[in-house]
Amino acid sequence: MAKKKLNIGLVGYGFMGRTHSNAYRKVSNFFENDHVPVLKAVCGRNEAGAKAFADKWGYESVETDWRKLIARKDIDVIDICTPNDSHCEIAIAAAEAGKMILCEKPLARESNEGLKMVAAVEKAGVPNMVWYNYRRVPAVTMAKQLIDEGRLGRIFHYRAKFLQDWTISPELPQGGTGLWRLDAAAAGSGVTGDLLAHCIDTAIWLNGSVKNVSAMTETFIKERKHNLTGKVEKVNIDDACAFLARFSNGSLATFESTRYARGHKALYTFEINGEHASIAWDLHDLHRLQWFDHKDEGQLRGWRSIHVTDREHPYMDKWWVPGLQIGYEHTFVHQVADFLTGIDTGKPAAPTFRQALETQRICDAVLESAKTEKWTDVKVDG
Amino acid sequence: MAKKKLNIGLVGYGFMGRTHSNAYRKVSNFFENDHVPVLKAVCGRNEAGAKAFADKWGYESVETDWRKLIARKDIDVIDICTPNDSHCEIAIAAAEAGKMILCEKPLARESNEGLKMVAAVEKAGVPNMVWYNYRRVPAVTMAKQLIDEGRLGRIFHYRAKFLQDWTISPELPQGGTGLWRLDAAAAGSGVTGDLLAHCIDTAIWLNGSVKNVSAMTETFIKERKHNLTGKVEKVNIDDACAFLARFSNGSLATFESTRYARGHKALYTFEINGEHASIAWDLHDLHRLQWFDHKDEGQLRGWRSIHVTDREHPYMDKWWVPGLQIGYEHTFVHQVADFLTGIDTGKPAAPTFRQALETQRICDAVLESAKTEKWTDVKVDG
Amino acid sequence: MAKKKLNIGLVGYGFMGRTHSNAYRKVSNFFENDHVPVLKAVCGRNEAGAKAFADKWGYESVETDWRKLIARKDIDVIDICTPNDSHCEIAIAAAEAGKMILCEKPLARESNEGLKMVAAVEKAGVPNMVWYNYRRVPAVTMAKQLIDEGRLGRIFHYRAKFLQDWTISPELPQGGTGLWRLDAAAAGSGVTGDLLAHCIDTAIWLNGSVKNVSAMTETFIKERKHNLTGKVEKVNIDDACAFLARFSNGSLATFESTRYARGHKALYTFEINGEHASIAWDLHDLHRLQWFDHKDEGQLRGWRSIHVTDREHPYMDKWWVPGLQIGYEHTFVHQVADFLTGIDTGKPAAPTFRQALETQRICDAVLESAKTEKWTDVKVDG
Amino acid sequence: MAKKKLNIGLVGYGFMGRTHSNAYRKVSNFFENDHVPVLKAVCGRNEAGAKAFADKWGYESVETDWRKLIARKDIDVIDICTPNDSHCEIAIAAAEAGKMILCEKPLARESNEGLKMVAAVEKAGVPNMVWYNYRRVPAVTMAKQLIDEGRLGRIFHYRAKFLQDWTISPELPQGGTGLWRLDAAAAGSGVTGDLLAHCIDTAIWLNGSVKNVSAMTETFIKERKHNLTGKVEKVNIDDACAFLARFSNGSLATFESTRYARGHKALYTFEINGEHASIAWDLHDLHRLQWFDHKDEGQLRGWRSIHVTDREHPYMDKWWVPGLQIGYEHTFVHQVADFLTGIDTGKPAAPTFRQALETQRICDAVLESAKTEKWTDVKVDG
Predict the structure, then answer these.
(1) How far is A186 from chain C (nearest CA, A)?
(2) Assembly ipTM
């Protein structure tokens, strides 16, 4: 069976450009799909940089203007890996050009932008997806399956954290290459859009919709040198954010994220407590799932540390043998594989722009609540 | 040097009566103090039960009316181990009789009661202490020392949880022996006064005062059979409570407690993130302290799991040899030892009633906030 | 029901004298038996030291000659807590005087001594027991139950280690108070009798008899100052010992002990792998049992970390509530409780001297093998 | 700078063929070298299978006879991924043809074969390497650096295990595709060559040469159906093997491997105890290194769990950002990168055939010792 080529046009070649390129290159060595991604073009404003990236990864061509990329007939998919402030414009243009669109998370800086993007892709009827890659950690995918099978029963509690410690030094500047996440104009928000968005995406996937939230945010270092202006400027992002939430299913939740938790590099954890069973997971050891089942015999009940590397575990029949772990990059390979399957079968891979919009609206409610110091309802479509 | 006897009169002989009695019996085998506790009398309404307890533990006599116990000349200390609704009355009477007073936590059902108790002991000038025993887990005491030495620098985050799972079954009744903690009339509140009070006591000891809170509570099982009336009645306690807090030092905090976290028996954990170092602790493995020090050499930084059983660790020179752990009961022995030292030296052991009142006020603010759904300031003295 | 008094005569009041005294004092507060231990007399050559110990622990009298203690009519039990070189003589004399005997482990310096002791207690028909306390860690007791229930099926592997690091400094002297364990004349051997004896006692209890062994020993620091002579002398004990073993049930084993394993204070661990399930345990977290059950549903198999603190766990209904851990000292309380039950019921508590002799013979075979560099059979009777 | 092409000819396309192919494809996306591997040809007896593999991985051509592959002028490197019984013949032929050679581990079935292979590559003067991939786990590479810097001081103990549980069922056949590791004729030995060889390779790299060993082996299931003959036949491999060893540096070691350790999929662990510090590592969580440093301040000493994902950790500047882990497959990428660097610089990457021969000789001594039940010296040249 001859494979169909799917020509990728990548916009932005930073950290995320690398993870996506690696996923496109690997997916067909490990997964069977009708379509095979082809690294057709990479687009970056700096031509030399884009060229070097293309050489390293095997992109066939280079563009310096994303509008030209979108205009190309030989491009099937536009993959948006640029800072958040350009997602909306690029996505709408790509949709209007009839391209499939993959967009890095968060969908946008805030939900108004996101809503426009949703409208555009739905009007164009093009396949679309947002890179909330942690859904495709095999342990996390398995958590979803266990919940969907009803093994937890009624859910009482959800708690998630995403803790980092890389911005504690006041000497760290804001803005510019590699640091746009500290610049509110480019990023939209701080840890809320960057880290809590991951936590929220997983949470609504596992536990359903969120009704309302009470949040607080803090900016510990008030001023930093700005790389683009060279001046010391006010820091406008949230360094830390914590919030209480009530889910529609009646469960209570706490969420927290910070870049000031000394000792944690990227500690994304969640735990969910149900009537019959509980689940916990931790990005620092992503190949393990913690599982407690109250149905186990009384004296032998305990948290099981499941090494999620068996053939019967999600995605793992594609990789190595039991006991041999995969890592961060594989979540992107899985996401590409599922996107291809979505094209092959006509059943879109999640999260679509519309599904990712819900996360955006929760982020909006969180930031609003932190500002007003009030419980805030999450907006739903009218 | 001849030891001075300190005659104990214990009121209530349930779970806490046992832990305290064990502490009084053991303390002088391991600690050197001028005073030696003597198990003089135990008081309980059920004479047979009190007698059996006295026989088992070696109490010299039995009373069935706590007023008679307080009236006895041969009693130096009144130790209150009854449900929360009687703390206030007993404590005030004991203070008026000039007795030293040890009171189980929480100090009272709410801070108005607590304030009266503080006034009574301060007017009487009697030594007084509340049994917030977890301060005396050696690992927790060491955490306090490390913070006081300034090793963490500026504190950014505090997070604490106390998770249990013993009330998930709807068949569990409320009220009566062993179950008064589920009866709001006897307990004052649910997890807030029972479990979060521990978390709060430790937190203010380690991290200073709390300014304000935003809380939510939930009662998952709305009705339960009441053991005292035999009828199915509304449950008035909080089954779960989570809150955000801001400390006076500018740090952010999350607190959570529940009795619906499947898989956790008594998982009291806290973590504190400072500029230079972080600390974490867990009651389920109470003899370990987790320590991360950013001053460690870069490539070798990692969380250290410190087995707190060396002679140089707090209290541990009194016990066994390195590697051999102590447990829950020893925290009470330490608290008695410190109380005796307080009497010997005239420097009161903490927390006194006044210090414990602060915890009560935070609990009040938490419950108020959950009710009003607003950020609520913690009350401070005039 | 009136309790019968059981008068204890303790010989030696060092580290083990304390652990035993604590156990005698506590046992009747927590366990129900017909007999109640009474701290009748403590015996030590240094009268002032013995007197101070008696005051601290509540012993009624003091002796300075163990022969006099044995001669006393009011003593029911002789508890031997002296260095190993006096176990044999004291035990035989006590047996001849018709006393019950509790003896610290190891039973003797080598099995010839042990055999005489067995003969003496069996001839006298007196209750006797050796303090291999780790059998009474609740998690270890539960391991025994699980194995006896056949849950592991055929056993393939046993591995045990006891790692310490307290003798690495060459400055540490040998011999004398607190250091007799480094003096071969007093101790008989080094880690083999001190630490491996524990591992072996547990192993034969859990996994049956050992057929043969191949061992190696090492003395890393060849000379140390001797505290008794004041001179630098050859070190005659084994600093480290490792051996291979074959059990009678066909399983293979590795054992290792050392006092040169930097970072381990008293890391006694064992693991046992059976056809259907595996068990692992670790003294540094003694209240947990690791359990893997192949009968668990495939994708959810994992090692369970069981917090052995529930009422249905061995011994734990006597202590606190789920989640609240006990520690090292409680193993001795359990052993006294079982010894009392043995007297009450006529079914002797294990290990008796005879059962402990088997451990001694394995230790002998290990040391013999290390010397001859050959596989060595474990001696059996007759 | 134009890259030089390095044409790879892969012999065998089973599990190891996949891991190597993946490494060749990825290496130049992440590492900078003068040479770039090109997937020139794959060789397998089954043409259809080889063709399918070539399609999946992008090999340019297919051969069904390895002699033809070796004869091709356009092949620079022969990579041997066949069962152990063909390593020797292929390697010698490839050496005679002047090809560079990469050979899967173990080098051969036993050291006589290995010696011939060493002679052949040394005579031909061709670059050669054996795929002992675990040296390139970043945590393991860091262990090597720490030891080489003298941070552990004098080494007292080394212990390693490689535990699996996949052959416990007696229904599992031996021999044939995917099961040649259970057939002594194809594999040479069982766990000794398959698993202990890994442990030994790491050990001699970290801790120097081994003097002598005392070993035991066991075959728990004596007969299994043979896939090639269809008959039930005697099993000739070792299911389990444990041995004691003495290193030339005076340290003691225990090694163990089995495929009957229920609950362990591929638990390769090692620990090394030195005078000043200790290191432990575990393949099931390969991105962590456990580190204990006695030079840490006394009360704060503890095992550090180092998440080896920082830019300053070995190889990790090539991958993602701190906290995001890599896995099993990356060890092969590292090995290819180092091999390329070896070619670029003329300093051969380790282990060469000669270095891997030492592992083979230790395996031989282990099997000899198990057979003779005697301590056995490891053979050395000359």
Answers:
(1) 43
(2) 0.96
